[in-house]
Design a protein that fits this description.
The chain is of the alpha+beta class. It has one domain: Endonuclease/exonuclease/phosphatase (Deoxyribonuclease I, Chain A), CATH 3.60.10.10. Helices cover about 15% and strands about 35% of the residues. The strands form two sheets. It has a six-stranded mixed beta sheet with strand order 3-4-2-1-12-11. Helix 1 links the parallel strand 1 and strand 2. It is globular and about 65 Å long. About 45% of the residues are buried.
Amino acid sequence: MRVASYNLQKCVGVDMRRHPARSMVVIRALRADVVVLQEADKRIPPRPTALPFDLIENKGFSAVDFGQPTGSLGWHGNAMLVRDGIEVLDTSKLALPGLEPRGAIFADLMTPLGALRVVGVHLGLIRRYRLMQLNTIVHALARLPDMPTLIAGDFNEWGPKHALDAVTPAFDFVNTGHSFPSPRPVAALDGFALTTDLKADKHGVLKRIPAHVASDHLPIWMDLSRRSPTPEPTP
């Protein structure tokens, strides 16, 4: 199955035009079963969605309900879209520490790979707080039933993701390539992290028109599969 992550920048492109239909063209081009979004709502309260619900539903997706305010697509700007056929088993949300208001969303899904937990994030601008936020997420996951898990989103980490390894020992980061800024990408701010029972068979950055103007981030994608259990040695 394919999972994608996309920072919508509230559907405002680098041309400073708010164009939700253009953003939806990019999302559909990803051909993903699950799409994790950041900056999915407008900034000013009551934070209405930047991507209209009817546009989402008309294009074959459903928005996962995280108990967000009425009219908002996500929580702290984080949202998740799923294709028909993906069943939502459970959801939750988590406030994260830091100077800026940040949060994470958790969705347990029934997918072609079986049960899968997807965590959506948009981490802080300062590494100290990014580490604190990931540490909070990892501790929250440890209190949940065990399940293959991936973290997807805008990690805001300009350098190699191994700088975040210390607080995510159960996860491996996927090197998806540079996604920011969209006209001429120089940094891999967006990424995926997987538990060891999952693997990325293919992954990449979507560069097709109009992705280079629809947001200041390019979307990333990953074809996901389950790892075969390692056989125990024969006594």
